[in-house]
Amino acid sequence: MNIKGCIFDLDGVIVDTAKYHFLAWKRLADQLKIRFNEEDNERLKGVSRMDSLEIILELGQMRLDAKLKEEYASLKNKWYVDYISRMKPEEILPGSLEFIHELKQASIKVAVGSASKNTPMILERVGLNGMFDAIADGNIVHKAKPDPEVFLTAAKLIGLEPRKCVVFEDAVAGVQAALNAGMFCVGIGSEKVLKEAHYIVPGLNKMNLKKLQKIEKLSGL
Ligand code: BG6
Ligand code: MG
Predict the structure, then answer these.
(1) Active site annotation includes 40
(2) Which residue has the least CA distance to atom 2 on ligand 1?
């Protein structure tokens, strides 16, 4: 195969943490008396912590100084960490482990490409520590998706050129980041939302090595 590396977004692709992000942001929005629902939450997927706060403040037409923004972002993170510190291996999304094992057996490198600074804790809690060949996350990458930095960093860490890598992403900003990195992108989720992805599946349970080989043929990678 020409595909030598698979880079996975974490939140919404390997684990379902979007619900915990929502609960923590909702608690903050309620405290600030800003109306915030699950539909608004879609806009926060793949977006960095500070940019997510900006979106919520914009929804409430509220302006805050930098110090207060830092305080509220930390408060949200404290609540979020409360949730994820209780995560269990059962919260790994269906099909993820099987697919990753299949890739590793085929000597395809696997990496994480996530905006989250909480990536190490999540991987540890769900028992995926040491599973990946490399991790590019919010602790080492500073430009938010749709900037390609996170995926380019992941590719560099596994020693591969971008065109040899495929990205798995559930967020619009993440799909754009993959395209900006010059990588093939498999959208995880709905065709309506992830239109720009090269190929779309509802979840990693619908992915396997055979399908990856088919995608490679179709795309002329
Ligand atoms: C992304 C999530 O993976 O990480 C976003 O999709 C989140 O919702 C971002 O805001 C940053 O996460 P954290 O854990 O560093 O606040
Ligand atoms: Mg995601």
Answers:
(1) no
(2) 46
Q: Is the dihedral of CA 42, 43, 47, 49 positive or negative?
A: negative
> How many residues are there in the chain?
221
Q: Encode pLDDT of 141-161 as tens digits.
A: 989 899 999 999 999 999 999
CA of residue 113 to ligand 2 center, whole Å = 9
Does position 218 have pLDDT exceeding 90, yes or no?
A: no
The predicted pLDDT at position 70 comes to 98
Token code pair at residue 156:
């560099």
Q: Which residues pair with 114 in a beta bridge?
A: none
* Cβ of residue 76 lying under 6 Å from some atom of ligand 1: no
Alpha-carbon distances, residue 54 vs 20, 44, 48, 104, 145 (angstroms):
18, 10, 10, 39, 15
pLDDT tens for 110-123 read 999 999 999 999 99
SS3 letters for 120-156?
HHHHHHCCCCCCCCEEECCCCCCCCCCCCHHHHHHHH
Is the CB–ligand 1 distance for residue 11 below 6 Å?
yes
In this structure, what token pair is assigned to residue 78? 């404290």
On whether the pTM is more than 0.85, the answer is yes
